[in-house]
Design goal:
By secondary structure, the chain is mostly beta strands. It has one domain: Alpha-Beta Complex (Nucleoside Triphosphate Pyrophosphohydrolase), CATH 3.90.79.10. 12% of the residues lie in helices and 38% in strands. The chain has one helix and seven strands; from the N terminus they run ββββαβββ. Strand 6 and strand 7 form a beta hairpin. The chain is globular and about 40 Å long.
């Protein structure tokens, strides 16, 4: 089993009631932006890097929303994963 710490970023448009979502091409998923890389030291840095890849660069602040959600699942490549998912609001 692979164990990971990940972040999911809830990104709201600065003036409209719109939120950033990603639609996967390989399956029928629509999800919030997320990252599981351990390269960055903080959850905010991890979230910032992932969101910059989508073109969203002007974040005013980052706020933790709650305690992490723990989940176990099989990734699409059949890897069993245990994940602590931290929600951040940008």
């Amino acid at each position: 089993m692979v164990e990971r710490q990940a972040v999911v970023a809830i990104v709201k448009h600065w003036s409209d009631e719109k939120y950033l979502c990603l639609r996967w091409k390989s399956n029928d998923w629509t999800v919030s932006s997320s990252a599981a890389s351990e390269e960055e030291k903080t959850r905010a840095d991890r979230s910032k890097r992932d969101n910059e890849e989508t073109g969203y660069k002007n974040r005013a602040s980052v706020r933790d929303l709650a305690s992490p959600t723990h989940s176990q699942f099989y990734h699409e490549v059949s890897i069993r994963t245990a994940c602590a998912l931290h929600a951040l609001y940008l």
